[in-house]
Amino acid sequence: MGQDNTVPRRINRVEGAVDEVMISGGPGVCEHWGAMAAGLTFTELAGIENHLAAGAGAWEDWDLSAIVPAGTVSVLVLVFKSGVGSKKAGARKNGTALDRPFTALTIGNAASVLGENVSCCMLTEVDANRVIDIYAGDTATVRFGIKGYWS
Questions:
Q1: Do residues 54 and 126 both lie within one domain?
Q2: Based on the domain organization, do 26 and 94 belong to the same domain?
Q3: Number of domains within the chain
Q4: Burial 98-134 (b: 16+ CB within 10 A, else e)
């Protein structure tokens, strides 16, 4: 989702600059402002590498240089939560202070508290080295994968 931004403005306490687009988590939910270059192409990957975070409860780097090519601007991250344990997970551009882990219950239903599987996709920018930050509240039950990328 995107919304043209022709003047600087704030949405949900997030500041946007001229010529940036809003990446939205849904109606009225501004997740991030970012520049979107014209002519980007989305490439869906054939398979998904299951990736587990090394530690729980903190943001950490995930190097995607073996998964996506040079020139990648952003990636579509699959976040998969299974079983019981912490339901917090997230993905963001490497090095940002944007603290946006979500609680898996908000994307599933009350039954997920009993250990059912819940998944969602998040869009995030990559840095120049194709690294993103990921957050897992529990290393045993939260997995990440890259569904595709924009370049």
A1: yes
A2: no
A3: 2
A4: eeebbbbeebbeeebeeeeebebebbbbbeeebebbb
